[in-house]
Amino acid sequence: MKKKLLDVIFASDKRKNLLILLKDGPQEMESILTSLNTTRQALLPQMRILEEHNLIDHHADTYELTVIGKLLVTEIIPLLDLVDTLSDNIDYWGTHDLGFIPSHLMGRLDELKCSIVFEPDISQIYEINRDFMEKTMESESVTSFTTFLFPNYSSFITEWKDCGVDISLIITRALFEKLRADNYNYLHTFVTERHGGLFVYDGDINVLSFSQNDHCFLLRLFTKDGDFDNKVLVLHGEEALGWGRDLFEYYKQKSVPVTEV
């Protein structure tokens, strides 16, 4: 009796890794053994199973995916990438509210690799992430969607501007009105100076903030129960940065540019 395809693919790391390896084209046995760091004796039984289920084929000592094998590998690689993404910090992903992420970006969650959860010391809770601050000063631009502002927000925004960083901010209507009432002069100066722009989002959103410079992307999320959490998810890599840019643009398109206070 043949195995179920799910078992054929996922019940053996050797079979799964061989399928992924062959996605780039046919390979000779010696090259396969080197790439998978295994022996012919250990791999041949797994190859036979894949051949019996019409997922790979071989000619002489060269192996390749069948049409069905190519179809399945094309589908399973995004799944494996997503599993890798979530596995790094599954407790964080699983306990926080992801409802603000639009469906087309939720489908690309596998791009958020290379993540770490940073929990600031109690003395730093009301301060911007220091690494993000420093990396922004080395960046050409910074974008942020935020529902709050750190007490020293004006000082680090001024530092970024002095370094020539292009700043684009999206804030909620409630935060805009608070700024206009509490710090009108600073808000007026920010709006009238040339930079990336200030935008107001009038919709409902359940996120603390997300920010990005040229080097990293930060997420501050509520828990699924709606509670505040001081932990920050920090992401690196081109895919994560591209995902972050698309998230910011999504909300920017739904926001109103501020041209006067």
From TrEMBL:
It comes from the Archaea. Residues 125-253 form the Methanogenesis regulatory protein FilR1 middle domain. InterPro entries: FilR1_middle_dom, Tscrpt_reg_HTH_AF0396-typ3, WH-like_DNA-bd_sf, WH_DNA-bd_sf. This is Winged helix-turn-helix domain-containing protein. It comes from Methanolobus zinderi.
